């Protein structure tokens, strides 16, 4: 589903005369299989977010090739990446990243508006999803009127609204208490099993890593060691 080959990335910081190159990722090879949950773990600064940003086209690799859903995305322009993300990825963040001035329903609906989907269809899809994540009663609430756990449910609904084959999550449980964490993980497992959605999840959290089929460990920008297969997804473990 996602293949990264020979990926290296360095940031260049500072002004011209004092430019400094910061190498972050070194020769990463990874393959995320369709229908699996992959956890990415590693110490702060090991390059986890950089890896996710490369997968989703927010930054471009210094070296290497990225193929997602059969398409070589390495050379996409910014505009092409925007379309590609809308069609292929849903995102879940630690800080939810809901738009404060929009209701729960409007937040979920927004990607459909951007895509020009018909209003009646948007409404139906939004209601279905908010129902699915247990937030039907809160459709007209603003994010500021919802608990952290409720906001994360809304953000899951938003991530799913375009029916993406892949969901990328950056510390999705990082702001949740243990009860909300448990219910989010149950939801992720269900979505993975029932809809076959592929998940890539950055996490510090052992409970999250425990639901993953595989765990990729980064250390100082490199893959730490080969990844054992521990879940139900078969074959082709190309890390
Ligand atoms: N835009 C940038 N410019 C320069 N350096 C950057 C930039 N983004 C990240 N870095 C550096 O790259 C390294 C890896 O950062 P990254 O955010 O990928 O780590 P991480 O593993 O996600 O960390 P954390 O768990 O703290 O979020 C760090 O040393 C960081 O300072």
TrEMBL record:
Q: Which UniProt keywords apply?
A: ATP-binding, Nucleotide-binding, Transport
Q: Which PROSITE patterns match?
A: ABC_TRANSPORTER_1 (PS00211), ABC_TRANSPORTER_2 (PS50893)
SUPFAM superfamilies with a match to the protein in the record:
P-loop containing nucleoside triphosphate hydrolases
InterPro entries hit by this protein? AAA+_ATPase, ABC_transporter-like_ATP-bd, ABC_transporter-like_CS, ABC_transpr_LolD-like, MacB-like_ATP-bd, P-loop_NTPase
A Pfam family cross-referenced in the UniProt record is: ABC_tran
The ABC transporter domain is annotated at 2-239
Instruction: Offer an example of a GO molecular function term for this protein.
Output: ATP binding
Q: Does the keyword Nucleotide-binding apply?
A: yes
| Annotated Gene3D superfamilies | P-loop containing nucleotide triphosphate hydrolases
Matching CDD domains: ABC_MJ0796_LolCDE_FtsE
Q: Cross-referenced SMART domains, in alphabetical order?
A: AAA
What this protein is called in its record is: ABC transporter ATP-binding protein
Organism this protein belongs to: Paenibacillus oryzae
């Amino acid at each position: 589903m996602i293949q990264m080959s020979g990926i290296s990335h360095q940031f260049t910081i500072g002004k011209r005369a004092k430019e400094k190159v910061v190498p972050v990722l070194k020769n990463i090879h990874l393959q995320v299989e369709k229908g699996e949950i992959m956890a990415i773990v590693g110490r702060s600064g090991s390059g986890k977010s950089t890896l996710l940003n490369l997968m989703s086209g927010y930054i471009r690799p210094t070296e290497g090739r990225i193929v997602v859903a059969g398409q070589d995305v390495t050379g996409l322009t910014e505009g092409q990446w925007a379309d590609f993300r809308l069609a292929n990825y849903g995102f879940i963040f630690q800080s939810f990243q809901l738009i404060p001035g929009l209701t729960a329903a409007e937040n979920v609906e927004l990607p459909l508006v951007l895509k020009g989907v018909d209003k009646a269809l948007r409404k139906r899809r939004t209601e279905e999803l908010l129902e699915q994540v247990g937030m039907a009663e809160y459709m007209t609430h603003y994010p500021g009127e919802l608990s952290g756990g409720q906001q994360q449910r809304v953000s899951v609904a938003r991530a799913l609204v375009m029916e993406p084959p892949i969901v990328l999550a950056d510390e999705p449980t990082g702001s949740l208490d243990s009860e909300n964490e448990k219910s989010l993980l149950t939801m992720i497992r269900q979505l993975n099993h029932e809809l076959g959605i592929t998940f890539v999840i950055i996490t510090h959290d052992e409970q999250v890593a425990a639901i993953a089929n595989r765990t990729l460990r980064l250390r100082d920008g490199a893959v730490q060691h080969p990844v054992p297969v521990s879940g139900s997804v078969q074959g082709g473990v190309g890390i």
